[in-house]
Design brief:
The protein is of the alpha+beta class. It contains nine helices and 38 strands. About 15% of the residues lie in helices and about 40% in strands. This is Transglutaminase-like domain-containing protein.
């Protein structure tokens, strides 16, 4: 949806003598460019062009040279050749276009004669956006009249590692004075120029409002989907008001905060914090592997089992071909940015009617084709940051939302984000091989294309702005320990499994991952698994782990204990004697009953013995 606007530059040699027409230049001269873009540590850009013009005919020579720049105003312009400084003028061609004209002092005549000259100027600086340095280099205009071209990009090491560079440089090598050089040939920059970002992540501050309403006369339970951690982002919440009853993870990986609403009541849930966005998937957040029953299934908008979808999927074959087909086949509808929200067309309608497509059509068609080809795919719905007002995400109920697909890469064991919409609208930037720092995921859709709803879509009756996101200074969120406690049973009884519960409460605004838990006990028999690993504990959540103890027939004379090791922490619970009170009473009563019964039977036996003895004495007399 959003696009990156690029400057264009074109060689326009002014011909002297017979044909002073710029369009004839390609037949009268050969051109050789070596261009250097060098960025200082403060982001300022210095450009030097070494241009060689060689006469192909004896009757022509170049008297001047023009460089046209769109959306850029060059400064500190200078030029020179073998004869010394050159006469240079700067003029405005259109509102967003500036032209540098270089006038040569002396003609270079004769077939095969060459003129070498240098042009220097300061151009568009790199942009520091939060934690990221971003640069945009113009594409090569009129590449058909340029015979040879190479571009060297020099980036200071202080900018950090490259998060993405599009297109890929032909060569990367260290350079002097703490710089790194990236080299691009003509064929890689003629179509789209160069876009690059340097840094490890981007930080976005966010404030999200969820409008919940219960118009019924009964108490209901409702959930809101909080932006979750994914392979491309870590989310840190500074506040969530009101606090939910619990936060759980659904099968798609969404974080669902549960609330109870009384009859005929409404409430606002406000979540604020910071998201750290990555350009490459990380292994630090465990990824849910694909589920064949949902990630390949057909839905109302992802008609992966339709014959026409199957036909195209079989023809395209792999995920990259599918992606390129979606980009080339669909036509983006810019008017949708200002229009009211519209219904979702779905993949089949997008395939048959490619005009008037927006991000949902690009996403739906990609998912349907990928699933039809046996490639697990899903939708991400969220926010995409751009400074281009024409290409901001679609207006949905007053908020700006964006959709993009992910596919499962089995070789990397990862869900990979791609954005065919932005590749279409950016003029060819590669969003398949490299992602960026601008996509903030709100929800994940696998089985249901509509649910859970994204932030900004919880009450569309009155258009309001419920999403506020901006690049913000980095904050370091240090985790605090989990709150761990034991929940014992009401009483301990013999011969049965007595259930204890280990409670892990996470009262803070960040998640924990892969927490090992092990159980052991002194003078207790633990039933069931003694070791487990909790994959994720979401923020503001409570996780309960049951563990059972099978007791012997007799109550212990010294209290037993049960212990849990959670990560590096150990929590021991000494089972109090009061839990055995019922057991003691039962034991005492059973013992007393047994003694009384034994006494009764002993008495009966003794009485019977005495009766028999008395009868024997009478007979002897």
């Amino acid at each position: 949806m959003p696009a990156v606007t690029r400057s264009l530059f074109a060689l326009l040699p002014i011909l002297f003598l017979l044909l002073p027409v710029a369009s004839h230049a390609s037949g009268q001269f050969s051109t050789d460019f070596h261009v250097e873009y060098r960025y200082d540590r403060d982001g300022s850009a210095h450009i030097e062009q070494k241009i060689t013009l060689t006469n192909l005919l004896s009757g022509y020579y170049a008297s001047s040279y023009q460089l046209e720049l769109l959306d850029d105003t060059p400064a500190n312009i200078s030029g020179r050749d073998s004869s010394g400084p050159l006469d240079i003028t700067l003029s405005k061609k259109q509102e967003n276009s500036n032209v540098i004209t270089v006038n040569f002092r002396e003609p270079v005549v004769g077939k095969g004669a060459s003129r070498v000259f240098y042009l220097r100027y300061d151009g568009r600086p790199a942009v520091k956006s939060g934690q990221v340095w971003e640069i945009t280099l113009p594409r090569l205009g009129n590449p058909e009249i340029v015979d040879k071209y190479d571009l060297d990009l020099y980036i200071p090491s202080e900018f950090g590692d490259p998060a993405y560079i599009s297109p890929e440089p032909l060569q990367t090598a260290p350079a002097a004075s703490g710089y790194r050089r990236y080299t691009f040939p003509k064929d890689r920059v003629s179509a789209s120029g160069v876009a690059a970002a340097f840094g490890n992540f981007q930080a976005f501050g966010f404030n999200l409002i969820y409008r919940l309403s219960n118009p019924t006369d009964k108490k209901v339970s409702m959930s809101v989907a909080l932006p979750p951690d994914t392979a491309y982002q870590r989310v840190f919440y500074e506040s969530l008001t009101p606090l939910p009853e619990n936060v759980t993870v659904d099968p798609d990986g969404n974080w669902l905060a549960r609330y109870s609403l009384g009859p005929d009541t409404s409430t606002l849930v406000i979540a604020s914090g910071q998201a750290h966005i990555l350009a490459e998937p990380t292994k630090n957040v465990p990824q849910l592997p694909p589920d064949q029953s949902t990630d390949l299934s057909s839905t109302s908008v992802w008609q992966s089992d339709h014959p026409r979808i199957n036909e195209y999927a079989a023809r395209l074959g792999n995920v990259e071909n599918i992606y390129n087909f979606v980009v080339s086949h669909l036509k983006y509808d810019y008017s949708a940015l200002s229009n009211s929200p519209r219904s979702r067309k779905g993949a089949l309608a997008a395939l048959d009617y490619p005009e008037n497509s927006i991000c949902t059509e690009f996403t739906d068609l990609f998912i349907a084709l990928a699933r039809s080809a046996g490639i697990p795919a899903r939708e991400i719905n969220g926010y995409a940051h751009t400074t281009d007002p024409r290409l901001r995400p679609v207006n949905l109920a007053g908020d700006l939302l964006h959709a993009w697909p992910e596919y499962w890469d089995a070789s990397r064991s990862a869900w990979i984000s791609v954005d065919p919409t932005w590749q279409k609208t950016s003029g060819g930037l590669d969003y398949f091989h490299k992602f960026d720092f601008h996509h903030f995921a709100f929800v994940i859709h696998k089985s249901d294309p509509q649910n859970p709803r994204s932030a900004g879509l919880y009450d569309s009756s009155v258009p309001t702005q419920d999403i506020r996101i901006e690049i913000s200074p980095y904050k370091n969120f240090l985790p605090s320990p989990l709150e761990i406690s034991w929940i014992p049973p009401r009483r301990m009884l013999p011969f049965i499994e007595n259930s204890f519960t280990l409670s892990l409460n996470n009262p803070q605004g960040q998640a924990f991952y892969n927490i090992p838990v092990s159980f052991s006990g002194l003078r207790t028999g633990i039933s069931g698994p003694r070791n487990t690993v909790i994959k994720v504990i979401p923020p503001y959540s409570r996780t309960l782990l049951p563990v059972s103890i099978v007791s012997s027939a007799f109550p212990p004379f010294s209290p037993p204990d049960i212990s849990a090791v959670v990560g590096s922490r150990t929590l021991i619970y000494n089972v109090p004697v009061r839990l055995y009170l019922v057991w003691f009473i039962i034991t005492v009563c059973a013992s007393a009953f047994t003694l009384i019964a034994l006494a009764f039977f002993a008495f009966k036996a003794w009485s019977l013995y005495l009766q028999r003895s008395s009868r024997s004495s009478i007979i002897r007399r």
